Amino acid sequence: MEAAGASEERRRSVCILGSELVENYTVYVIQVTDGAHRWTVKHRYSDFHELHEKLSADWQVDKQLLPPKKMLGKNSPGLVERRRRELEVYLQTLFLRLLSSATPPPLASFLHFDLYERSGVAAALAEALFHRGEDLLAGGQVYCLRPLQLHSVWEQLHLSTPSGPELHTHLAHILDFTCRLRYLKIQGTQGPIGTSNIQESSLTFDLSIFKSLLHAEVSECSSQQIQGLPSLRRTLVTCSVHHTTPSMMAILAPEASEFPQWEAESAEGAGPGSHVTAVIPLWSKLTTLDLSHNTITEIDASVKLVPEVEFLDLSHNQLQSVDHLQYLYNLIHLDLSYNSLEVLQSAHTRLGNIQTLNLAGNRLETLSGLNKLYSLVNLDLSHNLIAQLQEVRSVAGLPCLERLSLTHNPLCCSPDYRTRTLALFWDRAAEVCLDGTAPSQQEVDTVEVLKAIQKAKETKDKLHSGGDKRVAGEPSLSPLSAAPPVVSSSPSSPPSLQKAYCSSQGNDK
Description:
Layout: H1 2-10, E1 12-22, E2 25-34, E3 37-44, H2 45-58, H3 77-98, H4 105-110, H5 113-116, H6 118-139, E4 143-145, H7 147-157, H8 172-180, E5 183-187, E6 205-206, E7 215-219, E8 226-227, E9 238-242, H9 249-252, E10 262-264, E11 278-280, E12 288-290, E13 311-313, E14 333-335, E15 356-358, E16 378-380, H10 393-396, E17 403-405, H11 417-423, E18 433-434, H12 441-469, H13 495-506
Parallel strand pairs: 4-5, 5-7, 6-8, 7-9, 9-12, 10-11, 12-13, 13-14, 14-15, 15-16, 16-17, 17-18
Antiparallel strand pairs: 1-2, 2-3
């Protein structure tokens, strides 16, 4: 291990690529190489002088090593190029003399090791937690880490001498903090970091150093780079993963790929002829799972591992069907908005106890599969392809439905869309909030007229049917029951009621 560390030190190098004139002074563009990683740093001569003062005082660096300061013609091309070569020699000499042991903090800071180099990143994190870790834990705040930081910590832990001699930069501060942290956010980046060529999405990191997490959020990463996810199953209550995974399995059961057949821990024991080769433990405390804004194409069998989930968000993915949700016995809130769903046949067989269902932004033309979701309270169907009002009948009979959104569907183009939709709810019309707006009194009155018209029509149909049955000796209905309701044309009658009545005579629906 020590030989490997020494080899890596030899792979470090530094050079000055060129210079730039900024206002009335020159800055030198320094390129630092650490293995496969490279980054650039810009410094003017006064920064070099300040660094040299610190190294001369505390690290026995020869005071004559730094080229002298020149005032006359300091920005002339010839002087700038000569100084560039001299400063490059200065830095390379420091590398040879000082990097054989721990990098002096002034030099590490000068070369931005705290931003890009593995040991420097870990040391900077340790120092920050040394000063603020207890306050962060006591305050219960969400702590944000980058994949580069986690990668650096994990790599340092695998070295034979993972920490420097300074107490405040010791990795013990990080491990103590991660063992007790409850709320974590991991925020990756797209593209290289800062002035480097480091792609965070290619850096693996391990989450097994976190022992007490209740909430974890991961964004802008790759599921392939995340290790140690199973170690969070015992404690995690809320899990959010965005712009990271193409499948649920990669997050909920990453070890499943190692086995040809597997089963969830709570499943009944395999029979004599079973081919199950592994039993995967449950996420025993997970109640909220947010996998929105990924590229998930199916709800796979890994949902068996999260039976306690009550809130599931799969919005902004690429789902074309809804499967396996029957294993989520406690599911109450489900968000499937902005996917590619076209039909939801027999949804009640998978969503029996659902109370809130968001299906906005899909390709639904029919709602026939939703007619038995008897616990449903909130339903969002906006931004779909529903063109026929009769499709709403499938959900109008749901006894608990209180909020319904149908905005941005073709059927909304009808001028009397709201009243005709509310009328489908019959006696519950006044209780239903449609498209975020409660029914007005005028709409309720109009619905009452439409109901009366419908009842009159039904009575008329019964009379007609009764007339046919009198041949068989059946008693007849009173002709009065067939009379339509009288809607006065006097000014005292609301115009909306007159319009609704006249409309119904012309178009009986």
